[in-house]
Sequence to fold (123 residues):
Amino acid sequence: MTSFKTAVLAFLVLVAAVPAASAAELLMLEQPGCAWCARFNAEIAPAWPKTEEGRRVPLRRVDITEPWPDDLKHVARERFTPTFVLMEDGKEIGRIRGYVGDEFFWYRIGEMIALLPKEQSTQ
Fold:
């Protein structure tokens, strides 16, 4: 085996042994025909990835009419949409049931994000 292949193999083993960084995400439980989901999609969704909150907590959409994702088996299902579930390392931090407008949403999501562990500097 060449030294390059050996170095690459050693690097891959090292990377696999390092635990993944903490990952938070915001689940949006939605369903087709949901008027309040459409309102969220018009008022918040386009800006979400451009905000500090959206960069820290990416939005993941889950259609409640589809089979439930395997990695969310421990998350309580909802029948009411939209429901927003803040997750950190696979654990539920909090949820918002419903969407009644942008001011309430930004206030509540700010409260929930404040419950997450502080981000650590990479420098």
Summary: The chain has four helices and four strands. Residues 6-21 have pLDDT under 50 and may be disordered. Residues 3-17 form the longest helix (15 residues). Helices lie at 3-17, 35-43, 52-56, 102-113.
